[in-house]
Design goal:
Structural class: mainly alpha
Radius of gyration: 20 Å
Number of domains: 1
Oligomer: single chain
Helix content: over 70%
Strand content: under 5%
Order of helices and strands: HHHHEEHHHHHHH
Number of helices: 11
């Protein structure tokens, strides 16, 4: 194989690995904004919380319970952590965010930004500002796979496949099922939905919890790959907002397709001019907004 082509394919795979994390995070943001019109600035902190919760379940929960032998591993964390983060999100929506509905969106943005700072402060006090490695990568996902053009870590390949399946599942749930239709109707015309005996307030709470749970799931997947730090969400949240804008605010399909596409583009750009990889997302955002202000998949108004 041509060495240049091999390098482009290898960087493309690494970029796709970043792209699936963009997709998981932007998906949660798109669900919350698209259905609730809430700009959740705490999304990056919830992603960070998911990664730290995976570490806590593996390394600390046994000590806290007096059971030094207890280690809750990756597979269990993949289920438990999103549920824990989703429960936190539902409590946050129920007792804090709900009071701001109907007010200027800047208030909810400031509230979620403040929540992000609080979460960061909690984990900085508990773990310090330096990175913490995740020790619980399962044996089945260790090692490498020969893709023909590169040797690729098994765990990274798993995150790509798993994340894409999750994104497809969420899109299908929101766009092609009765539950998704009820969710969309409950946010667009709540009075009509209430007339059918559906508790719209509970529906909104569950929707917010679902969106935050996706951030927690992304954090669990990221923990074995990246150094887990209290500020790891800050490194991504601006990029994620840019991706959501490019794809179209609130568009599930737009968030996923844009994330994967820009992840690949970042990887390929590194082959030719590495410094530009960090700004390619924002260049794309400017170009898209100039041509189509509503985003690639957004509805024109």
């Amino acid at each position: 194989m041509n060495p240049m082509l091999r390098l482009i394919l290898a960087q493309g795979m690494l970029g796709l690995n970043n792209g699936v994390f963009y997709a998981m995070l932007s998906l949660g943001l798109a669900v919350i904004f698209g259905l609730l019109d809430v700009v959740n600035f705490a999304h990056g902190a919830l992603y960070m919380s998911g990664a730290f919760l995976a570490i806590i379940l593996y390394s600390y929960i046994g000590t806290w319970l007096g059971l030094s032998w207890l280690h809750i591993g990756f597979w269990a964390a993949l289920v438990l952590v999103p549920l824990i983060v989703a429960c936190f999100g539902m409590l946050f929506e129920r007792f804090l965010l709900r009071w701001l509905y109907g007010l200027d969106p800047i208030y909810s943005l400031l509230l979620t930004f403040g929540a992000a700072l609080v979460l960061q402060g909690i984990f900085i006090n508990g773990f310090g500002a330096s990175g913490t490695p995740y020790p619980g990568t399962p044996d089945q996902l260790q090692g490498i796979v020969n893709l023909g053009f590169m040797m690729f870590p098994k765990f990274r390949l798993f995150t790509i496949i798993f994340s894409i399946l999750v994104c497809i599942g969420v899109w299908f749930l929101i766009e092609r099922t009765r539950i998704g239709a009820v969710l969309r109707a409950g946010t667009e015309n709540p009075d009509l939905v209430r007339a059918f005996g559906i508790n719209v307030s509970r529906l909104i709470t569950l929707t917010f919890g679902f969106g935050t749970g996706l951030a927690g799931l992304a954090g669990v997947l990221a923990a074995p790959i990246y150094s887990v730090t209290p500020l790891m969400g800050d490194d991504l949240i601006i990029i994620i907002f840019a991706i959501v804008v490019i794809g179209g605010m609130g568009s599930i399909m737009g968030a996923v397709v844009t994330s994967l596409g820009l992840g690949l583009l970042e990887g390929v750009v590194k082959v030719f001019y590495a410094p530009a990889a960090n700004t390619v997302v924002f260049i794309a955002m400017v170009l898209v907004l100039l041509v189509r202000p509503s985003g690639l998949f957004g509805r024109q108004r």
